[in-house]
Amino acid sequence: MEAVHPASGVATLSWLLLALPAFGALVLLIGGKRTDKWGHLLGCLTIIAAFVIGLITFINATGLAVADRVQELHLFSWIPVNALQVDFGLRLDPLSLTFVLLITGVGGLIHIYSIGYMSHDRDRRRFFAYLNLFVASMLLLVLSDSFVTLYLGWEGVGLASYLLIGWYTDRPAAATAAKKAFLMNRVGDVGLAIAIFILFANLHTTQYSVVFANIHTLSPGTITAIALLLLLGACGKSGQFPLQSWLPDAMEGPTPVSALIHAATMVTAGVYLVCRSNPIYDLTTAGRLTVVFVGAITLLIGCVVGCAYDDIKKVLAYSTVSQIGYMMLAAGLGPFGYALAIVHLLTHGFFKAGLFLGAGSVMHGMDDEVNMRKFGGLFKRMPITAVTFGLGYLAIIGFPGLSGYFSKDAIIDAAFNQPGWEGWVFGLAAAIGAGLTAFYMTRLVLMTFFGKERWRDQKSVNGNDFHPHEASPVMWVPMVILAVGSIGAGAYLSIGHRLSDWLTPSLGALQERSAGPLSSIEITILTLVLAAIGVLVAFVVVGRRDVPVVRPERVSWPVRAARANLYGDALNETLIARPGLWLDRALVFGDKFGIDGAVNGIGILFRGSSGRLRKLQTGFVRSYALSMLGGAIVLIGALLLVRFSG
Amino acid sequence: MNTSTAVSISGGGFPWLLAVILLPLLGGVIVAFFKNDARLAKTAALLFSLVEFALTLVVLFNYHASGARIQLAGSADWVASFGVHFSFGVDGIALIMLVMLGGLTPIVLGASWQEKLPEGRSMAGFFSLILVMESLVMAVFAATDVFLFYVLFEIMLIPMYFLIGGYGGPGLRRQYAAVKFFLYSFLGGLLMLASAIGCWSYVESVTGTGTFDWATLTRVVSHAPLGTQIWLFMGFFFAFAIKAPLVPFHTWLPDAVQESPVGVGVFLVGVLDKVGIYGFLRYCLPMFPAASKTLAPLVLVLSVIGVLYGSLLAAGQSDMKRFVAYVSIAHFGFMGVGVFAFTAQSEVGAVTYMLNHSISTGMLLLVVGMIAVRGKSFKAEDYGGMAKVTPLLAGTFFLAGLTTLSLPGTNSFISEFLVLIGSYETQPVYAILATIGMVLAALYVLWLVQRVMHGPLRGKAFGADEPLVQVTGGPGAATDPISRAKGMIKDLNGRERLVLAPMVILILLLGFYPKPLLDVVNPSVSATLTSVGVSVDANQGGN
Amino acid sequence: MTPTYYLLLSALLFSIGAIGVLVRRNAIVVFMCIELMLNAVNLTLVTFARINGSLSGQIMAFFVMVVAAAEVVVGLAIIMSIFRTRRSTSVDDANLLKY
Questions:
Q1: Alpha-carbon distance values, A296 to A288, B59, B320, B435, C8 (Å)
Q2: Is the previous residue joined to A242 through a cis bond, with omega within 30 degrees of 0?
Q3: With A27 labelled, which of A68, A155, A306, A458 sits at a CA distance of 20 to 30 A?
Q4: Residue of A222, A204, A220 lying closest to A147 (CA atoms)
Q5: Cβ partners under 8 Å of residue A13, min gap 6
Q6: pTM as predicted
Q7: Cβ <8 Å between C91 and A629
Q8: Mean pLDDT of A290-295
Q9: DSSP element (H, E) containing A75
Q10: Highest mean pLDDT range out of A235-244, A380-389, B110-119, B411-420?
Q11: CA of B86: how far to CAs of B78, B148, B192, in Å?
Q12: How far apart are CA B372 and CA B287, in angstroms?
């Protein structure tokens, strides 16, 4: 762990990184309709300005000595109560600055793309406000210097995600998906929150620098507990098993949102959290192993389900789930994988954002249709989209020389290079995942851009004929830039360990070992062969045959299971949703007739008994006189008894 | 009889506190005379409440956070032979309550400006009662004599009883709710009176002279044997547990809130219920420290049940007012956890929660009222798709929802976070259970938002019970039905914006920069904790 | 001459009065029985005053007489007004004040 220095020079201006997008969001939300005309421009401008500031800070940081690269900028005291001193501060180190560039860079491109994509939406201004809010929160998430400010950004991106998934609020599916995303995230947040509580209870601080310096003083059990709880938070945010099922539903949002939030940036926050907390994970083998398992399981789930869906965005969403699974797997390998996870995160940010924007461009040209069975032969109609999409496709399946080849194969390599059974299990999971990825991505590309033009005799979801056309430049220019990133980013970042060396002050040095069953060459060959098989099978299944426009229902059970996303939703439904609903109804009933019933029962008891007792009041004076006399006699008798008995 | 040794009498300055207490009373009496001119009555009441707010701010600025425990105190004999004093004073906790009440009243008056009252009721009477109640609650928070506190605790039921029973919803239900509210609170009050008398006689048996002076009681009773303390604690505890409804004693609240006019509901959940939590902090903890500690598990269990139970019940409500009431029950659970976890963070969290809950739940209830003005119904199922038609209303509703679910960046988060992080130190199990309430909070808020604001346009608001139009979404969606619906119901008007604006600003301000608030509360909380025997480390960080 | 006889007499008078109040319906008779009880009590007071040699019992008897006189005034007025409205002096007829 490098020493922490107070920020100086250009870095002291880095608060602008947060302030600019937040300012944009505030102006657009408060300004309302008045800002409709120029709102989208302000939105883009603030993000681009933030990108420029980020770039300057980044370049400035590269000029510093390695030991000086971790800086902190104190802004103000946020929650000071005795021992708990939460400051609003920024941590500027290689890891956060790298993320700043990713977020503002890809974010800026997607902002520009959205100008075109959302041009028909009359609430476009509000859309940009939400996007700005997202960027501000995401920057806070990565720049924060304590777990509590991280939590602020963490929930902020959740909020933005909720708002944007539910953008088309009049669609019940969108509203439900947004709610589901927020709730599943909240489940994860509980883990993160409790982890923060434990840290504070034991170390009396939530500041990264102090926590990381003193974490070794805690008992191993506590450290493992913290690691697992942080992982729960990461699973929620990153759509990892067992909280993965919200992410595909999140595709109800507009496509730029899917690209920015649910592919490139927000969903990788979990990976960021694990990598950021590397001093904690370094100390717990069990915690790391759990991370690897979660990653491996998720990447397989994502691949398998991705093979069965026909919705272009959902396939990409499951692809995201599985790619983040790779990152988690890498992060769980500890010092052997943190940097690899970040490399893959960055390249994935490029190619997956590009793929989503391409899908958005297809949808834009195809009247919001997402069913790939209605596509086909679009290559001729939208060549730029097809080429940029194709480059993203080659990157994700790990075509040699492109981004995915460097980043994903490095992870597979590291997964194999574990001693004992772990090497086989994790390595094979990762390699099989690569084969499945090749299959479903090839299937997607073939169904969309090649083959017969099945859309000719179909109607869209909106009931119109299809008139596929290429998108406007404001949309395809960002796609081209991202495609360039898909080609070159992997090589640029990986060759000569450029990125992992840069990240060393944040993550520790990347370690390598060859303890696994196979050598690097063998692993590369294995991965390539599996990927090639995947591509070939896809060719045989969808490339050589006609694709039926209506989904065939008589299919084998694995396909059925995959179409039901391996019964993830059904499981949630039967285990949590239904019992919860019943419990809720039972409690409402119990409250009304149990507790309140008891209260009202007491009231009824009094009323009833008073109804009986008042009958004694007959109105006959002489009976009153008699009872008075009787009472007097009883009293006197009692007095005499007491007086003369003892 | 000299019992005020621990109270620092403010050196002959202007009795600001007395002015704060009496001004609204005066205003209430004056406003009551303008029976025939509703406009004049409303304006006068609003003016009084604004001046009152200014006065509370004066008190705020005359208060020195690092000064004496009780400041701006004043005292006069009332029933000298029983040691009853007419004495007032504030600490940081009471001060926050005063300012909160002072700020909330003009907002409530503004929100009730167009209130549709039942037949035969006048606006003058309504606003007058609200002012009278403000005065009484101010006095409750400022009282430093236990008997005086008891008397005010009971008297403040009277205007509330009339506000619910006289100005509330239609039919006999409102009288049922008013009586239920009164009987519950009154029962608790009587138990408290018994305990207060018990305290008096204990003090008399120890020192020879009985008194109800708070400072003396805390000094003497706090050293009573555990058994005595537990009995005395119970009386106060039940009074406060009913007032800040902890779970088995809560059923009056949903009924009362449902039958009250919206503004009165805000007072009910935002102010009156706070007296309960305030009472725990001001009376139970310092007077019966040993009993508080011994019985803390009991209160914690009730509080955690409150958090989970209130949340689940809130999710199951279709009436939006009842929903707010159950949400409040859940939030009072959080406050209860905070108070009885006995750490600086959790106590400060509980105190600020009192303020923040008033802002968040108050705003939620006000917005619900504004929705109901448009849709003529408080039932969630009578709405749908409002977001497209009234974006501003939907936005404020959503913001109120966000602070209700304690999203970081809003005011409630600070409090909830402090409560949880503080209570985890001493009571990890309860803290973790309460943390689950976070998920449930998101569930009930978002579910309600979805039912009311999202989905296709539907509901009575547009003159139809059936879904009016199915608007297809996506870029270039059909715009016509929305425009038509916009013709039927309007978004927030100027008055409503003015009422909600201060709350929106406070939500964000206290969410991002709560330091001034925490600095006022902190010393008083430390003093309270010290009296329970928990040593509070000085203001130093672990870093 | 022992005071016991006076006490026995007053007890006898009191019992007659009490039974009269309970069994007679005519308001006037009931009223007279009440007077009988009051005077029985007076006799007791005076007797005890004599026994104890103090004056307070006798003073108390005067008080009772004054109160009895006032009571007669109010009571007879009530009976009169009841008689005017109901044409009856039976106490059982005036039973409207009940549950």
A1: 12, 62, 45, 29, 109
A2: yes
A3: A155
A4: A204
A5: A53, A57
A6: 0.87
A7: no
A8: 92
A9: strand A71-81
A10: B411-420
A11: 6, 7, 18
A12: 45
Q: Does C21 touch chain A (CB under 8 A)?
A: yes
Query: 10 Å Cβ neighbour count for B135?
Result: 26
State whether residue B399 sits within 8 Å of chain A by CB: no
- Condensed to tens digits (0 to 9), the pLDDT of residues A149-188 reads 999 999 999 999 999 998 888 788 888 889 889 988 998 9
**Residue C97 contacts A where some CB pair is shorter than 8 Å:** yes
CA atoms within 13 A on the CB side of B425: 22
Can you read off the two tokens belonging to residue A581?
């609903």
Between the alpha carbon of residue B52 and those of residues B45, B47, B78, B102, B153, the distances in Å are: 10, 8, 26, 6, 21
Q: What is the pLDDT of residues B451-497, one digit of tens each?
A: 888 887 776 655 554 444 444 444 444 456 667 677 677 888 888 89
Give the tens place of pLDDT for each residue, A431-454: 899 999 998 898 888 888 887 777
Residue closest to A115 by CA, chosen among A472, A470, A366, A370:
A472
Q: How confident is the model at residue B8 (pLDDT cuts 50, 70, 90)?
A: very low
For residues A1 and A5, give the distance between their C-alpha atoms in angstroms, rounded to a whole number: 12
Please work out, in degrees rounded to the nearest 5, the angle formed at the alpha carbon of residue A395 by the alpha carbons of A389 and A399.
125
Distance (Å, whole) CA B206 – CA C49? 46
Residue listed under structure tokens 């917005």: B367
Task: Please report the sign of the dihedral spanned by the C-alpha atoms of residue A170, residue A172, residue A177, residue A178.
Answer: positive
* B383 CB-near residues (< 8 Å, 6+ apart): B371, B375, B377, B451, B452, B453, B458, B459, B460, B461
pLDDT one-digit tens code per residue, C47-97:
999 898 888 999 999 999 999 999 999 999 998 998 898 888 888 887 877
Q: Are A270 and A238 in contact (CB under 8 A)?
A: yes
Q: Does B541 touch chain A (CB under 8 A)?
A: yes
Asked whether the beta carbons of residue A625 and residue C21 sit closer than 8 angstroms, the reply is yes
Cβ atoms of residues B521 and B92 within 8 Å: yes
Residue B481: closest C-alpha in chain A: A170
pLDDT, mean of residues A26-51 = 88
Whether residue B431 lies within 8 A of chain A, CB to CB, comes out as yes
pLDDT of amino acid B12? 52
Question: Looking at this protein, which amino acid is placed at residue B264?
Answer: V
Three-state secondary structure call for residue A90: strand
Residue type, B145: D
Dist CA A594 CA A589 (whole Å): 7
Q: Is the dihedral of CA B497, B499, B504, B506 positive or negative?
A: positive
Question: Are residues A625 and C94, on separate chains, in Cβ contact within 8 Å?
Answer: no
- Measured CA to CA, the distance from residue A232 to residue A9 in angstroms comes to 38
Whether chains B and A touch (3+ CB pairs under 8 A) is answered by: yes
Q: Quote the CA–CA distance of A101 and A107 in Å, as a whole number.
A: 9
Q: How far is CA A523 from the centre of its chain?
A: 30
Residue B488 in tokens:
């039927």
CB A50 within 8 A of CB A135: yes
pLDDT at B480: 60
Assign 3-state DSSP to chain C and report helix, strand, coil percentages, each to 5. Answer: 80, 0, 20
List chain A residues with CB under 8 Å of C96: 619
Taking an 8 Å cut-off on Cβ atoms, the answer to whether A169 and B408 are in contact is no
Kindly list the residues from chain A whose CB atom is less than 8 angstroms away from the CB atom of residue B313.
584, 587-588, 591
Q: Which token pair is B434?
A: 């309460």
DSSP at A144: B
Chains that touch B (3 or more CB pairs under 8 A): A
The pair phi, psi for residue A199, each rounded to 5°, is -60, -45
Q: Tokens for C75?
A: 């009571």
Asked if A270 and A289 count as a contact pair (C-beta separation under 8 A), the reply is no
Chain center to CA of A292: 18
Which residue from C minimizes the CA distance to A632? C18
Q: How far is A174 from chain B (nearest CA, A)?
A: 9
